[in-house]
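Q: Can I see a sequence and its folded structure?
A: Here is a first one.
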Amino acid sequence: MTMTVEVPADAEPLSFAEAYRRKLADGWESDAAQQGAVAQLSQLLTALRREGKPATGLYLHGPVGRGKSQLLSLFMQHVPGAARRAHMHAFMGEVHARLHGLKGSDPIKLLSKEMAGEFRLLGFDEFYITNIADAMLLGRLFEHLFKEGVVVVATSNWPMEDLYLNGRNRKAFLPFLRLLKQHLNPIDLADGRDYRRREEEGWPLYVLNTDPDEAAVRLAELFERFGGARSDEPQPELPAGLTAKGWRGSVGWFEFAELCRWGIGRQEYLGLVEHADTLVVEGVPAFAEGEADAVLRFVTLIDICYEHHCRVVISAPDYPEALYADGPVVTAYRRAASRLAEMQNW
């Protein structure tokens, strides 16, 4: 999801800090790492108000649940001029679609000029790289955006040095990494408090399938609760020939293998959430180390559902953190596991 907002250039300079203090009064718990981030974000807002002077972007990183996205949301409300907030999957989909419609010898340069005319600041939430094709495309686009004077504020679970750390042909990614270091100052939130972790044990949208018969009954109950008790309706025309096990209202019931065991990805999941406000995903497995591709598809699915506020009901043999405890994409998976915990109250 992308969002463009306009804030008057003469907005009160202290409004961001004041809004943060109000959040603290409403129950946000402060820590030293978060306060440091607020100070640097406030300094960036001051720099953005100085017409004609370049401003350096920021890169907020740390484990899941440290308040990075909430800080970005608050910051975006106070940016003077045009600003856009984007999530990785939606932004990449938009870039591919817009490039397809551009003619000329350098469509990426043309797109960067278009985007620079639309926003002065890009808030890039949940930044990460899983394939070299995305890295090369973003690298060229960001190079031109920076030349056009666009400022980037990004959030990520990874320090810059760890982006695409064990990826294929990582050497080709290093110029992009150097570019990020040039234009974004890092802010480490790793030592902060985990604001997302739930203390209570309730997982109302998560079904343990250690007893298959009991799990099947529970999934059917949740399917009827969110989709209605009427008989199954014909499923809408879904992307990539996906077939639901059941469809009611705006609720689709899928086997895990149908969604994550074959070559579909970001665009298909984006198309799926256009039709569904709830997905039932049956039979999420305990992943083996060699199943990184399936894990990444699952992560992408959860990311997109989270970004589009699509409720997810899961059945699995254990709770999320235990399904994939180690492996080459474990950091990305931990973010998805944390999001599944947060989504239980949706």
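Q: Show me another, different protein.
A: A second, unrelated one:
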Amino acid sequence: MITVLYFARLREALGTGSEHIALPAAVRDVEGVRALLMARGGEWEQALAPGRAVRAAVNQAMAHADTPVADGDEVAFFPPVTGG
């Protein structure tokens, strides 16, 4: 089981700030989690689609598509943040 968090526009678009999901054996990285969520279709597919500006963190550390994910991890998705 992993905890998935959604922030900012993703939370608004998906209608939830967090959820717990069972991690299928074939899902081993951030890109796999993203693909699993996009497979739900509709808003999920649109909000997390390739080409959309979405960043990820695993256990509160910035992550890339190939960052490993394991049971017990926290995976967060959020739009890029700009500062000034």
